[in-house]
Amino acid sequence: MTEAIHILIFIDWFSPGYKAGGPIRSIVHLCEQLPYRFSVVTSCFDHQSDQAYEGIQQGAWLQRGENIEVMYLNPKGVTNAFLKQVIKERNADKIYLNSMFSMPFSVNPMKVAKKLGLSHRIILAPRGMLKAGALSIKSKKKKTFLFTSKILGWHKGISWHATNEDEAEEIRKVFGKDCKILIAPNLPSSPKAKLALAPKKEGELNLVSIARVSREKNLLGGLKYLTLLQQEVNWWIYGVKQDQAYLEEMVNLAKDFPKVKLHFEGDIAPEKMPQALKKGHFFYSPTLGENYGHAIVEALVYGLPVIISDNTPWRNLEESKAGWDLNLNKLYFVPVLQFCSSLDETSYQEWRSGAHLLGSTIASDETAINANKVLFSS
């Protein structure tokens, strides 16, 4: 039963897009799992694409689910006059902005809504963009924006959505301790059965990552750890090849280490993720920072143990035999990778069971649903 609350969402990319990864999944799951009415304003292009979605009418409200209407637009045509018209026409209870720095789908909607006297309805989700690792990319431009926004008070009077206490602290660090911050975790997909995998052999190590090839994901750092192993490693990487120079750095390094076999598979649609995960014994993510990490949770839900950095919300994994969350240092990563290679099928199944149990627990957590209901009813 859909409740009376109406939420207007501005987001750079939305389904059927998938190339932007986690942010899209976050909002899709939000719309699918909360009993509210959603109006979503988004781009008619997928991430890093100049081809509009086929068969989708632009500039009209399209029914995309029982409680979801979506308007697809060319971002270049999103004027302040248009934003004013949409915000007034929808007259939503909450205006949700799913980005920190996007001009057409965050900054400008926020300014227009504030001019309409609707600061109290605005919720801004920075989606990990205030993490130190994220701010270090194009840092001058981002620092200039943040400085200007604070001087001009662009964010004054709005509410913030943090997915955990760490992200709440990141918001306070940049915008001050008096920010109104509501904490609600991202919503995962529903529980799944364990994937059927080929038996694990001792001395064998297959890794899979689902991540954009970009500096934020630190894939080159993860490759450097692999070059220190004596064992042969296969590493499948699924994701948009966003940074070609970074990709070439990885390829050139791997040439000197023939035991490390890289497989760059390109972007992948969500429905094909199980087939991708089946190639790995472990999910590998040496990321500089994730405010959630949908692919990490998806791996756990399917019973694939994870080897990740400690720059995500998923901590103390080893206690659950679900994987490892490690400091970004070869002294931590290399021994774990060697241990994972040494596992035989019997030992490996213990870690698979631990991962699946933790993933199922996360996917069935009613407190996450309730926290998100509070987010939009406060």
Keywords:
38% helix; alpha/beta; 378 residues; globular; 2 domains; Rossmann fold
If you had to describe this structure to a student in words, what would you say it looks like?
- By secondary structure, this protein is α/β, with parallel strands linked by helices.
- It has 2 domains: 178 residues, Rossmann fold (3-Layer(aba) Sandwich), CATH 3.40.50; 158 residues, 3-Layer(aba) Sandwich (Rossmann fold), CATH 3.40.50.
- Helix content is 38%, strand content 18%.
- The chain is built from 13 helices and 14 strands.
- It has an 8-stranded mixed β-sheet with strand order 3-4-2-1-5-6-7-8, sandwiched between helices.
- A hairpin with a 2-residue loop joins β3 and β4.
- α2 crosses α3 and α7 packs parallel to α8.
- It is globular, with a radius of gyration of 21 Å.
- The model has no long low-confidence stretch (mean pLDDT 93).
